[in-house]
């Protein structure tokens, strides 16, 4: 016949032992050893460096080509600049290697937009339109010989066409005929056109 264990109120020593056991379990599972065990068991995957939040990395300014005033190695309207994760950040670099960064290593390459230029200077186009627009020099320079000849024969449409062309060129509405962009200082006054397409849409304004 099995002996029955007497049931009664738990002693203070038993309660203290149970509390210490719970505290020990929590400290082990939430501490560094617990995190390592979770990672070894197939836990959360290491974050890619491209997915770091703002403030967790810093990117260098693009190197500008003096002739084109666009970032070096601009291909298909895109260039890349190196970005450095902050010290003590661990993430996967562009090679897929998990690295603990010290702030001096390149973590990933960030794409930056650039423009296609073909030798047409914005300053030259504006100057020609201002001083020789009545002769059609601005249109000849930008690759519109028919309009340039027409302006030359009509003295800039009696001055009205010269004034309109000067406004359009100054506002960068009229550009080179080959579809390229003007050469403008990289940190100068550039016109950026905003439009709504399938990739951009209006978000509903949320009020508190």
From TrEMBL:
Residues in TM2 domain copies: 119-167
GO molecular function: amyloid-beta binding; G protein-coupled receptor activity
GO CC terms of this entry: plasma membrane
GO biological process, one term: apoptotic signaling pathway
Membrane-traversing stretches: 120-137, 149-169
Protein's membrane topology: Multi-pass membrane protein
Annotated localization: Membrane
Domain of life: Eukaryota
Keywords assigned: Glycoprotein, Membrane, Signal, Transmembrane, Transmembrane helix
Sequence similarity: Belongs to the TM2 family.
Name this protein carries in UniProt: TM2 domain containing 1
Species in which this protein is naturally found: Mustela putorius furo
């Amino acid at each position: 016949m099995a002996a029955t264990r007497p049931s009664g109120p738990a002693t203070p020593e038993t309660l203290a032992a149970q509390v210490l056991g719970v505290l020990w379990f929590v400290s082990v599972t939430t501490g560094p050893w617990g995190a390592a065990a979770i990672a070894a068991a197939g836990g959360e995957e290491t974050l890619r460096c491209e997915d770091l939040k703002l403030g967790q990395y810093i990117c260098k300014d693009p190197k500008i080509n003096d002739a084109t005033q666009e970032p070096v190695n601009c291909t298909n309207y895109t260039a890349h600049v190196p970005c450095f994760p902050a010290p003590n950040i661990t993430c996967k670099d562009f090679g897929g290697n998990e690295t603990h960064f010290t702030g001096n290593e390149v973590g990933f390459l960030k794409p930056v937009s650039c423009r296609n230029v073909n030798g047409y200077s914005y300053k030259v186009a504006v100057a020609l339109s201002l001083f020789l627009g009545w002769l059609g020099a601005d249109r000849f320079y930008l690759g519109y010989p028919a309009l340039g000849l027409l302006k030359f024969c009509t003295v800039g449409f009696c001055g009205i066409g010269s004034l309109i062309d000067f406004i359009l060129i100054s506002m960068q509405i009229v550009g080179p005929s080959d579809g390229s962009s003007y050469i403008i200082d990289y940190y100068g006054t550039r016109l950026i056109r905003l439009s709504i397409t399938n990739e951009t849409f209006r978000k509903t304004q949320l009020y508190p």
